[in-house]
Please model this.
Amino acid sequence: MIRRSVLPALHESSRPRDVWAWAMYDFANSGYTTVVITALFNAYFVAVVAGGAPWAALAWTLTLSVSYFAVLVTAPVIGAYADMHAAKKRLLVLTTVGCVLFTALLYFGQPQTLWLTILFVALSNFFFSTGENLISAFLPELARSRGMGRVSGWGWGLGYVGGLVALGACLVYISWAEEVGQAATSYVPVSMLITAVIFALASLPTLLWLPERAVPKAGKLRDAYREVARTLRESARFPDLRRFLVSYLLFQAGVHTVIVLAAVYATQAMGFSTRETLLLIVVVNISAAAGALSFGHFQDRVGKVRALALTLAGWIVSLLLAWAATGPALFWLAASILGLCMGSSQAGSRALVGVLIPPSRRAEFFGFWGLVAKLSAMLGPPLYGVTVWATGANHRAALLANSVFFVLGLILLAGVRVGRGRRAAMLAERQSQGNGS
Model:
């Protein structure tokens, strides 16, 4: 039964095991974002490593911004190189080792090692983000155009499960450590080792069994830069892809702001305790997994743009509910809707990019997609922080302002035509093959 439901979404050469191996990478790397970026190490960095100094939160956001900027500069070139040399798998091994290594080195994060900790955070996030681009570039090799939403959703859904597994393992250890009297300076570093080990072990199915189907093309390293320059020159040939990427830049800025600052909002605006905040993150991840797994089927049925537009409308509703909430009941409802929309929008965006790009330049274009995602990460959270500062620590005003990203993204998304964009991508593909490039 499962096999019959999977096969129609896949290319003839793809097997269910290939999809499972691919989706396991989302499972593996989600522990990093959940534990390091969202739930645990960020607060530890601000309160302990930086000593709660007035510049502590700024140091954290700037550290991530520097790593995102490095990804922004290198992603298109790495993608073009991977396409040229059929090197997605080899590069994915390197980025996985890099992220696992520097996550484990966060074990040494202490007040006396502030600058080393900053370096390890920046490097771990750089390798994580680069690997995220590379694994996404495998999607069009596995799924048919009409099944891309489902397959992407399977990956995102399994990813949220992986984040919960890593967070749960860390919470079990932390609960024991607190019972025996250990301080955060002891149990948070060990949690980084737990996260690194889970990432390494869970990524093995991908690194061992996911096949590289791309065919190497002749060229030299400098040709990768020429491929990037060509893509920039030819961007006018892909107006729907370009319009969607601008839309994605805007609404993903809002998404990333929520990911980074949801716990801050819960504690500062709603008065949540640490335990309540961690439970909130668990609930959001569960609903996000449900959204990602179910949305792919919905997207493939009603159309990628229409389904994604409904998700953005859901984002706007959830943020308005959270802004209006003065008690826990309405805020929990808003968080549940937000989680569903988070999983849906992320899975849907990846699937839509896969449809609008030329098949032989997948890694290159997914590199640009990753570039836009990292640019949005540099745009959203700082603007939230500026709003909080300008309004006298009014987090509600900042959350309301964040909803504007989704409104603007929805307006731009309405002009994207998938059929036209797909025809442009395939025309560019035929011309590229005809020219022997």
